[in-house]
Amino acid sequence: MPCPAGSRAVPQPQLQPQFKPLANRAEPRPPESVLFDRDILDVEPMLRNFGGFGPTVSMLYALFLENADELSRRLKERLAAGDLDGARMAAHSAAGAARTAGAGRVAGLFASVEEAALRGDMAVARRDAAALDRALADVKILIARI
To answer: Within a domain: residue 3?
Structure first.
């Protein structure tokens, strides 16, 4: 829409994303029929909500991975320090993020750590936290296919 005579357009700021894209590749995104292990990563809600694989879904998964790694690290630090309350809070945040991303197994492990921390069961909390590395690695493998 043109500006009225004598007025000037206000320059708009250029927003820079603070995430790194999952991949800079020329080949097309995988078809929506690509099979995923739904216990590890259920992509259907993302596809339904955002109309298929694309830049928004890639950005959201990149953001999830960045946050999940940080929350997992924080959780393990809290457990190593014997801080069950801090571990519970980190696990709670991470479980919600994992559920939103469709990472069911990861969400279940974080939720189990949270419940164990609530019960004061450090052994179970540490056991399930130790399983997070493998579960997150599995999610990363599937997200890399997107």
So the answer is: no
How many CB atoms are located within 10 Å of the residue 120 CB?
9
H helices of 17-83, where?
A: 44-50, 55-80
Do the beta carbons of residue 44 and residue 82 sit within 8 Å? no
Q: Does a structural domain hold residue 13?
A: no
DSSP 127: H
Is 136 within the bounds of a domain?
yes
| pLDDT tens, residue by residue, 30-60 | 444 445 688 899 999 888 888 888 888 889 9
Query: Which tokens is 141 given?
Result: 């493998």
Q: Which residues, 6 or more positions from 106, have their beta carbon under 8 angstroms from its beta carbon?
A: 68, 94, 98, 132, 135, 136, 139
pLDDT at 112 over 70: yes
Range of the domain at 92: 44-144
Q: For the domain that residue 139 is a member of, what is the CATH number?
A: 1.20.120
pLDDT for residue 138: 94
Number of domains in the chain: 1
Burial track 63-85 (b if 16+ CB lie within 10 A, e otherwise) = bbbeebeebbebbbebbeeeebe
